[in-house]
Every structure is written in C-alpha cells, then in structure tokens.
Amino acid sequence: MVIIGTIFGSFMNVCILRLPIRQTIVSKRSHCMDCNYQLKWYDLVPLVSWILLKGRCRKCGQPISKQYPIIEAANGIAWLVIALVRGIRFELVYDVTSVCYMALFSALLVLSVIDFRTYEIPLGCNIFILAVGLIHLFVDYSNWLQYVIGLTAVSLFLFIIYTASKGRGIGGGDVKLMAACGLLIGWKLNILALVLGCIIGSIVHLLRMKLSGEDHVLAMGPYLSIGVMIAALCGEKILEVYMSMY
Q1: Residues 154, 126, 229, 70: is their CA dihedral positive or negative?
Q2: DSSP code of 32?
Q3: Would you say 14 and 44 are in contact if contact means Cβ atoms under 8 Å apart?
Q4: What does each C-alpha distance from 171 to 3, 113, 116 come to in angstroms?
Q5: What is the pLDDT of residues 164-223, one digit of tens each?
Q6: I need a labelling partner for 52 at 20 to 30 A (CA). Which of 20, 67, 172, 191 fits?
Q7: pTM above 0.85, yes or no
Q8: Are 64 and 55 a contacting pair, CB within 8 Å?
C-alpha cells in the first residue's frame, strides 16, 4: 500500500505544480522547471530517483524541490495509515469506502498545498472529490439520504456566509469543498469536520500570526481538509464519546 500510495504521490506533485498555472496534467510530459529537460522513466521513480540524483536535475544540476519526496512519502504513509485504521474486511461497501478515503486524502493534500500557496482551491479537485462521493453513494446506496443531506448540510451554511460577506468570510472553493466532502462522508461527519477544521485553523493560524507575523487572512482549505480526514477516520468514535457525555 505504501508503494502504490507513493506512486500516486508522484502524480500529485504534477497536479500541485500545474493546476495553479492552468497546464494540462495528462498530455504534457514531466520536465525540469528550469531547463525544460524531459525526464526519462528512470528519473521518475518515486523517492528513489530524487535520492539518487541528490535532489538535482540530471541535465542542468538545478535543485529539485523537496516537495517531491515529501508529497510522495506523505501519500504513501497516509494510504498505509488509512488501510490500517480501516482494516480489511472483504466487504464491498467497507473496502470501497477505504479506497475512496485514500483518493479523498490525495485530493485534499493537493488542494491544501495549492490553497496554502495561492489562496485558491482548484475546481478540478472539488470535482474529483464529488466524483469519488458519487461512486461511494452508488456502492452504499442504502444510506443515500445521509450523503445527499451531507451535500448541503454544511455547504449551504457556508454559502450564506460567503454571500453575506461577499467572499470575505469564506471562499467559494471552501463552499464547494465541503459540499463534495459531505456527499462522500455524510452530514454528521461533515458537520464534525467543519467544527474540527475551524478549531484547528483558529489555533494554528493564531500561532502563526504570533510567531511569524503571518497576515490575518488564512487559507481555510488545509484546515478543513484536516478536519475532513479526522472525521472520516475517527469521526464515529468521536461522536460516540461526545454523545456518551450526555
């Protein structure tokens, strides 16, 4: 699972670099961003090629960003963690859900990096999550209502904030993100994801403002993404503990 996740992590790096500048992610071959050297297959082995090349382009010798091995390793480790947390039950709905959560994490990681840098969530990432949600809905059709409600339960609330603040209170990409995630994880977990994302975002960004002089404007996508993944993997247990207190 680590190896497969790492391989997909390599493609995620392509998405992170090209989506913000509106470049195709499928037809154009991978190349050095400095000298435009088209990379060979042996330059594209996840983690291994970066290590063997000592983090530099084979042709021009310019440094290759550490983002490449970090994203590849992070995706591989995350897929393993999801597999371990979810386990294998050989039940169609359960195992498809696990695969959907792996795809969800990869998309969230891509959009989080992009949003952190540009304050913009690519529409393609949200469409991808929506598509994963539709696949999951088709497989777990007996619980269709909670997913359909999840599509609007959080996003409608955020859309009201977006409209009332004219985009200053929340971004349009965040609204679409929570709609797509709600379709995949359901309304209960999506509400929990919003609460967790807001708490984590408030704490982390206040610390960044205090320690590094960061501007008060924050990219909400990464924090919402963290909330979504925590809710997806641990949300049921968190809600059980919360409800047991009353």
Answers
A1: negative
A2: -
A3: no
A4: 35, 16, 13
A5: 988 888 899 999 999 999 999 999 999 999 999 999 999 988 888 888 767 777 889 999
A6: 20
A7: yes
A8: yes
